[in-house]
Amino acid sequence: MNNHIKFKRAQLRESIESQCKGSIEQKISRYLELKHQGIIGGHHFASASSECIYLYRDGYFIGAVMMSHAINEGIMKFVAERNSISRSKEEGNTKTIEELISEFREKNIISKKCVDASMKIWKSFRADIHHMNPTVAKIPFQKLAQQNMKNLSTIEKEIFGYDIKDGAIAPHQTKYWDIKTDGTIAVFLRLE
Asked: Strand, helix or coil at 38?
């Protein structure tokens, strides 16, 4: 490695370390304010949900908002699947997430609190953000990310709620967990 590259690496290291040290308390505070669930089912959206927490913690608010939209939709589709709710309308079109959420509430599949949390995420400038409409310049992303992350936490706590009994996870709603014949469960840990 030549001297120019070594110097550039050292300079970059110093800059990154300074940024990290200077924002560590804010990151800790943002992480703790979410009170997210430490264990969720090990499903296809679990890793993305955890990364979304880190985006918010690290101050990447636009990314956290966009991911919260996608994770909310993924979880609602998962809830439909696990409850044998068709995502197709009679005329062949696909139900919107809003329509699914309303159906879940009508059938008492999820609580009003969970419905409200999911709808708040769904209505949080989703189309404007995903299509990068000019209105995104006026969106208060930090506040919106905080709201969406707290709502996502509410959803995950309802869907993946559990107790610990005799040292083992006892899911509140077993249909959302993949419990193997030997009683073990595939989980995703977020226990920092």
From this structure: coil
Type and span of the H or E element at 49: helix 46-57
Output DSSP code: residue 168. E
**Residues counted in the chain:** 192
Instruction: Give me the residue label for tokens 């919260």.
Output: 68
Token pair for 113 = 């609190």
Q: Is the dihedral of CA 125, 129, 131, 132 positive or negative?
A: positive
Q: Of the candidates 100, 98, 149, 104, which has an alpha carbon nearest to the alpha carbon of residue 122?
A: 98
Query: What whole-number distance in Å separates Cα of residue 163 and Cα of residue 165?
Result: 6
Supply the pTM of this predicted model. 0.89
Task: Note the maximum CA span of the chain.
Answer: 68
For the chain, what percent of residues have pLDDT higher than 90?
A: 75
Helix (H) or strand (E) holding 37: none
- Identify the residue whose tokens are 């636009």: 62
User: Cα angle at 181 between 175 and 182, to 5 degrees?
Assistant: 120
φ, ψ for residue 164, nearest 5 deg:
-105, 120
Kindly state the tokens that stand for 162: 């559990």
